[in-house]
Amino acid sequence: MAWKLGRRQAIAGLGGSLLLGNAAHAETPRNGGTLNVGLASDAKTYDPIYSVQFTERHVLYLVFNTLVKYAPDFSIQPELAASWETSQDGKRIVFTLQQGVTFHDGTPFNADAVKWNIDRRLDPTVNSPQRELLAPVIASVEVLDPHRVAFNLTKPSPAIFSLLGERPGFMVSPTSWQKLGKEFAEHPVGTGAFVLKEWVRGSQVVLEKNPNYWEKGLPYLDRIVVRDLAGSVVGVQRLLTGEVDYVGELTASDVRPIEGKPDIVLKPIKVGRWYFLQWHVNAPPFDNAKLRQAIAHAIDRKRLNEITMRGQGYVSDSPTPEGLWWYDPTVKSYDYDPAKAKALLAEAGYPNGFEYQLSTPQVAIFQQINQLLQEQFAAVGIKVTLQPVASSEWYARVVDGTTNMTPTRWTQRADPDGLLYILFDSKGFANTMKYRNDKVDALLEEARTTYDIGTRKRLYRAAQQQIVTDLPMVPLIFGAEYAALRGNVRGFEWIPDQIPRFRELWKARA
Amino acid sequence: MTRPGLWIGFLVIATVVTLALLAPELAPHDPYRSGVDMLDLPSRAHPLGTDDLGRDILSRVIHGARTSLAIGFGAAMVGMVIGVPIGLIAGYFRGRLDFVLVALIDLFIALPGLVLALIITVMIGPSVRNLVLVLGFVMWPAIARLVRGQTLAVRETVFVEAARAVGGSQGWIIRRHVWPSVLPVVAAQFAISVSFAIFTSASLSFLGLGIPPPAADWGGMVRSGYDYLAINPLMSLAPGAAVTFTVMGFYVIGASFK
């Protein structure tokens, strides 16, 4: 039981962590130790080709490498692909691969393996959920030599890089996948820093250090055990007793009991979920632009953040939070101004306000937001009644239009195209606001076929300002979410996709 | 009277009724006004602390008495209005009519109340009015069966026989002779029905099918406080205790009279 803290060690840890603030950066990583991760797991398979569940990726990033990886601002960095070049017309990308990489089963990782991996996902008979993402973009994958592979695209597509840093980019061992068949789901084989030793469904996943890992010096930990948790309250208790070293997906109130504890470190993520209030722009009364502006002016976003996120989130002025490369501080939504809201309501033809139903999914955060909105709306004469909807039915009702005014949330995607196109292009599959602005469509279309970051930034700035001005929704807040770790765990950094990466963590002496 | 339970019951009910009637005067704060001091522990300003939106828990519990009593009395009334006439008719007239009504009563009694209430609420949607109707509808069979049993006993008594002998009309006999004898049982059952309705509506609220937010509703408060037990347990415990005492108060009275 090497990972269990003795009392004396725990006390030593208390003293040690007081120095942590200054010392953390100077420390050299220490090898060895077990990291116990507490997780409310929804995993069904660890075969990346079929993965769809959220927490499967926590383990996939340990067992597998992706072709490219995300930096904390979502810019793209090399991983199994050491470098790449894009052709003049933007329709061909040549990746140069890392050399000397082998899968856990000894199969060499090379251009053939990359082609096999992408072809598997494109093959309709394999029935990978990633096919619909890749098929419209990738025409073919071509092996140039053992370490160079070309992707031929149907059109220029900068978003392809963000796909290759995620599920479609996990490189699976072709040998084991073919040999194991369906069993690959429980015995995944990749090139990653950890090897999956055991998966007891509903209980735990045990991963052990890959001694032949190709990134020099990594990993530091000997072992990672991912333990299933019933929920955040239990997770926080286990963290306090030291049974687990990591708990994630904590809300601002979940962390209240552990704030200020010397042997616990909180890692907030502020580029997290985006909350907004949406409606159908074509359905009365929301087809009236003045009325939409009145509602936007009636909302005190700062107060929403202060109460629902204890001030730990951010006020949202656009779909993009600060910290992502396509964020632009000059994009502004409508200010909180109740007097102006009343004036606009009168101009819109509702001098005495109006009554409407605000849908309330049975999720605590949405209920909180709605009760606060109800209070703020009442102050300008808009009377909303809260209409509870079962969480399971809610999104279907938003899509078919039976639920009109409702708060929504989305997680950030690694490429601006990911969220902005699906939500706000008139052809976007998640455009449940029925929003259509030809200028926005043109900007989003141009941006998704341009590689130059500077040009894309400019296009997305213009698109976002137009969207925010048109008000198919009112941006509300960016939520705060936390991971909590034992004080001796080092090296944790958030990636805005909210999937924790454990690969490079290490444990200082407790 | 030497039944201490009765006096405790009356005391509890008197308290709850006072809270409900004088809620705006007694509550220290507006139960719906949010604040930036969320989930605070008890203090001078907030004797039971604040909830997840910074609202005063004590004020919400006090105002919750209104909701609970409205539902409790309303539903019991609905149950009585349906159940009492059916019980009187079945018990007094006997025969084929009785057979049909008893079958109907047994059919509904066989369905568990909470489950029936759940299903109907899912179909018609939650609101105070709907809850009153649903819970009243769930309770009428028990009321009807009780009234029928009592009526059966009374109709065989000498004074009812005498009334019939002097040629009194059936309506007059029921009103004048049967109903006064049935009344004490009905009163006791009314108190028990109030207690059942308050308890069941709290259960429905806890399951997310009660009165929608932001209503100050005890069951709903217990539910939303559940996530914050580690921070301010009173957010759940205070309304939970209010439900327990009120339900107990009405039940004790009903049971004592029976």
> From the alpha-carbon coordinates, what is the Rg of chain B to the nearest angstrom?
21 Å
| Share of β-strand residues of chain A | 15-25%
Distance linking N and C termini of chain A: 14 Å
Number of helices of chain A: 16
Tell me the strand order in the biggest sheet of chain A.
8-9-10-1-11-19-12
Number of strands of chain B: 0
Strand content of chain B: under 5%
Main structural class of chain A:
alpha+beta
> Mind summarizing the main beta sheet of chain A?
7 strands, mixed
Average pLDDT across residues of chain B? 91
Overall average residue pLDDT of chain A: 91
Number of contiguous helices of chain B: 10
Anisotropy-based shape of chain B: elongated
Terminal-residue CA separation of chain B? 14 Å
What oligomeric state do the depicted chains represent? heterodimer
Instruction: Outline the low-pLDDT stretches of chain A.
Output: 1-24
Folded structure, characterized:
The complex is a heterodimer of chains A (510) and B (258). By secondary structure, chain A is an alpha+beta fold. Chain A contains 16 helices and 21 strands. Chain A has helices at residues 7-18, 20-23, 56-63, 111-122, 131-134, 159-163, 174-180, 232-241, 289-298, 301-308, 338-347, 364-378, 391-400, 416-424, 438-448, 453-470; strands spanning 34-39, 68-70, 76-78, 81-86, 92-97, 138-145, 148-153, 194-200, 204-209, 223-228, 246-250, 264-269, 274-278, 314-315, 355-361, 383-389, 406-410, 473-478, 481-486, 489-490, 506-507. Chain A has a seven-stranded mixed beta sheet with strand order 8-9-10-1-11-19-12, with helices on both faces. In chain A, strand 8 (194-200) and strand 9 form a beta hairpin. With 258 residues, chain B is mainly α. The radius of gyration of chain B is 21 Å and the shape is elongated.
List the helices and strands and how they pair.
The complex is a heterodimer of chains A (510) and B (258).
Chain A: H1 7-18, H2 20-23, E1 34-39, H3 56-63, E2 68-70, E3 76-78, E4 81-86, E5 92-97, H4 111-122, H5 131-134, E6 138-145, E7 148-153, H6 159-163, H7 174-180, E8 194-200, E9 204-209, E10 223-228, H8 232-241, E11 246-250, E12 264-269, E13 274-278, H9 289-298, H10 301-308, E14 314-315, H11 338-347, E15 355-361, H12 364-378, E16 383-389, H13 391-400, E17 406-410, H14 416-424, H15 438-448, H16 453-470, E18 473-478, E19 481-486, E20 489-490, E21 506-507
Helix pairs in contact in A: 9-11, 14-15, 15-16
Chain B: H1 4-21, H2 23-26, H3 57-93, H4 95-110, H5 113-124, H6 128-155, H7 158-165, H8 170-206, H9 218-225, H10 234-257
